[in-house]
Write a structure and sequence with these properties.
With 235 residues, the chain is of the alpha+beta class. The chain contains six helices and twelve strands.
């Protein structure tokens, strides 16, 4: 699912549902990782373990020895030298996407259950212009939960932003314009896909000698989930 949204240079490894837990959940944690979840509830420990197993599988596919994935500043994962990447997990799904830093400047991925945001969350994360566009999209394509999709896109934008800037990016500091791949009439949400652009409302990172004013991303709906991904090229 995530891999479809990313360039070929990116290695993505996913785990779905109980099958994914059985495949990835028994991988032993490194002692440094174990110390972080020694008091965690079972759900937190399971997701922590599975997503790191996905990350280690991606490292191996890139020819890099598997190693611990520890949180750094603001919880951002610390990747082996020469790699950059992103991880995400939600109920029933975990994924890690890694790429050689020479191939991409940054990536950000996020997955969410394909269901409406809890009451009150949209107003906390959406700019007025975003809320207006979400309303129009929902009227034309009600089968897609655009509010949750906007939230996910903002998460992906932040995950791509932080490694480049080492700064916080508030929900209000990126204006995201979502678009479906086609303007087709209402149909099943399964398989819906599209793109988005995040216009940065604060000075963007300098990449390849140029200050970026926006990030571009893609989204999809699959298997009761929605996923978003942002790719930042070197220029």
């Amino acid at each position: 699912m995530i891999e479809e949204l990313l360039p070929e240079s990116v290695v993505a490894v996913e785990a779905f549902g109980e099958e994914g837990v059985r495949e990835f959940g028994n991988t032993p944690l490194y002692p440094q990782e174990e110390a972080l979840v020694v008091r965690a509830v079972a759900k937190r420990r399971r997701e922590f373990t599975v997503v790191r197993s996905c990350a280690r599988r991606a490292m191996e596919k890139l020819g890099v020895p598997a190693q611990p994935v520890l949180p750094g500043e603001r919880g951002a994962p610390q990747w082996p030298d020469g790699l950059t990447g992103s991880m995400t997990h939600c109920e029933g799904y975990c994924a890690a996407a890694l790429v050689r830093a020479a191939d991409l400047a940054s990536i950000g991925i996020d997955a969410e259950p394909h269901e409406p945001l809890p009451e009150g969350v949209l107003s906390a994360v959406a700019l007025p212009a975003e809320a207006e566009r979400i309303g129009r999209l929902a009227a034309g394509r009600p089968e897609v939960h655009w509010d949750r999709l906007l939230f996910s896109a903002k998460e992906s934008v932040y995950k791509a932003w932080f490694p480049l800037t080492r700064k916080w990016l508030d929900f209000s500091e990126a204006d995201i314009d979502l678009a479906p791949a086609t303007a087709s009439a209402t149909g099943p949400a399964e398989g819906a896909e599209g793109v988005f652009r995040a216009r940065l409302l604060v000075p963007g990172p300098v990449v390849g000698g140029h200050r970026l004013g926006h990030f571009d991303g893609r989204w999809t709906v699959r298997r009761g989930l929605l996923a978003t991904a942002v790719t930042v090229h070197h220029g």
